[in-house]
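Tutorial handout. Part one gives the primary structure; part two gives the three-dimensional structure as tokens.
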Amino acid sequence: MAKIFIDAGHGGKDSGAVNGNIYEKDIALSIALKLEKMLKTCGIETVMSRTTDVFVTLQDRASIANNCNAILFVSIHVNSSTGFAREIETLVYSYRGNNKDIAQSIQDSLIEATGTLDRGVKERPDLYVLSATKMTAILVETGFIKTEYKNLLSDNYQDKIAKAITNAICKSFNLEVKNIDKIENVEQALTVLVNAKIINSPDYWLKACDVVKYLPDLLINFANKIQ
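Part two.
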């Protein structure tokens, strides 16, 4: 079974990029957990550098990844800038061979999914987690915390990022993509039903879900069948 190492950047005392009370470490962890869930749904084994707000050294991140026999190291980050950049970029140790192909596939998938500007794939041999890992390793800068924080805090946008990375990984390693679009809450289900013109407005159904015990499950199951 394929094994992917997912590295949620920063954590604990290391907040990463900051915009007021918005921290890179929190966004990175949220996206990483979504990515883990989607990869597992596709039958891919995952290992995480962290699953909570704790500090993990760069050395430990690389060491854990090297010892778990992963085929790919994916590090999730948020960019910082004093300007007004609005772009996604993917970083690699060297833009050659398998590194190049996987990094470009992930970058292309992210741009297609989010519609944001393409900052491209860049070589960064100076980054420890890219140079000290034995497997193919990439680092995704998912956006800029100053200018794109609203998107980066959005569950829907984070889902797009996680799904795009999942699709690219599955494509790169010829793995089957399955069920990553599964609807798991009433709000998502009602959006699908409205778009399918089965219901006119979600408001009535949201209120009804507070009264009818099994209605949320019925709506979610129905939406999964028709999407």
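Part three, for discussion. The radius of gyration is 19 Å. The chain has a mean pLDDT of 91.
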